Amino acid sequence: EKALSDVEALDGFDWRVIWYRALSAIAQKNYAEAGAALDTCYAEVPGEAAPKLAIGIVAELAGDYKRAIEMYDAVSRTDPSYSTAAF
User: Fold this and answer.
1) At what angle do helices 15-27 and 2-10 cross, to 10 degrees?
2) What are the distances in angstroms from CA 78 to CA 23, 39, 55, 59, 62?
3) 79 Rama class: left (phi>0) / alpha (psi -120 to 50) / beta
4) How many whole angstroms separate alpha carbon 44 and alpha carbon 73?
């Protein structure tokens, strides 16, 4: 968290800080915080599959299967080579 805060102080608009905060929240099983951070990442880089897949994973871990399916479906339609989403 300190390292993320240090980087954030240098560039408060860098989406990667938010991405790593989401990963930290996932590791701490704080799925609500992770989901909020990932939604922000998705808004910053909407064409990227990784935030969509991560949102799906967090939604699944949190028991929000409808949202997980929506995100997995979006990823699999965008790039079928993401086998986890296609499955």
Assistant:
1) 170
2) 23, 18, 15, 19, 24
3) beta
4) 20
16-53 per-position pLDDT tens digit: 899 999 999 999 999 999 999 999 999 988 888 889 99
In the three-class reduction of DSSP (H, G, I as helix; E, B as strand; rest coil), residue 6 is classed as: helix
Q: Are 37 and 28 in contact (CB under 8 A)?
A: no
pTM for the predicted model, two decimal places: 0.83
- Look up residue 6 and give its two tokens: 């240090």
The C-alpha atoms of residue 10 and residue 84 are separated, in whole angstroms, by 35
| Residue 64 token pair | 């929000």
Q: For residue 38, how many other CB atoms are within 10 A of its CB?
A: 29
